[in-house]
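Catalogue entry: protein
Contents: sequence, fold tokens
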Amino acid sequence: MTHLNGTVALVTGAGRGIGREIALHQARSGAKVAVLARTVGEIDETASLITGEGGVALSLPVDLVDRRAVEKVFDRVASELGPIDLVVNNHGSFRAFGPIWECDPDAWWQDIEINLRGTFHTCRVVAPAMLARGKGHIVNLVGGGTGNSFPNGSGYASSKAAIMRFTECLNDTTASGGVLAFAVDPGLVRTSMTELQLFSEAGKTYLPGIQQLFDDGINIPPSRAAALIVDIATGRFDTLAGRLLRAIDDRELLEQQMKNIVAHDARALRFSGVEQDKL
């Protein structure tokens, strides 16, 4: 596949799991890929996998909570690979499990900072450059708690709901300039994050339902989200900008339903069962 030839993609949290799969899919579709994360060895391995298949990759360690560091890294990507066409905010943290009075307050807030502030920083840096060129796609990954309660996972859930609303706000601000933002839910994937939930004492105590889901056979391959994001980068789902797309979606059916989804204002973070004008 060469749908993305001549484009530049940047993927955060690209050292392993879902992020690595997203980066590989982008490269296999022809994009030059910048792979970002905090752990040097992991992103170097992702970059090596890409170059080993004949692709182009740039490995860059960064702490996304550090605004200045993000600015420098994005400048380097633009300088070495070219203008960025796609940003995928895949990074994530979920380490604070349990009732809020049992959670370490610093760990709870760190989940918020990494997930939400990191996404804000990348979007803040890349959006003006994309607007100047009149095109660009931004994909922000969401997950559990985005549209529903997540008992004992309040920090992660709050950050993901905030990212969903942030994505809508960003898209409504930039869409007229050709820059489109999307939220993507990869579904339940077996990653190092879920391993922590499964095997840590806090995870076993407060999130036993995660193990039950895996026992029930729910384990979405990371390739599903990666393939969906390739389609987003090609413009296939531009009609759904500002809305939530899911890895489990049948993409052919989703394409057929796009106009109906927009007409019903679906796949968005909205109040349900109340009259909004009375709130």
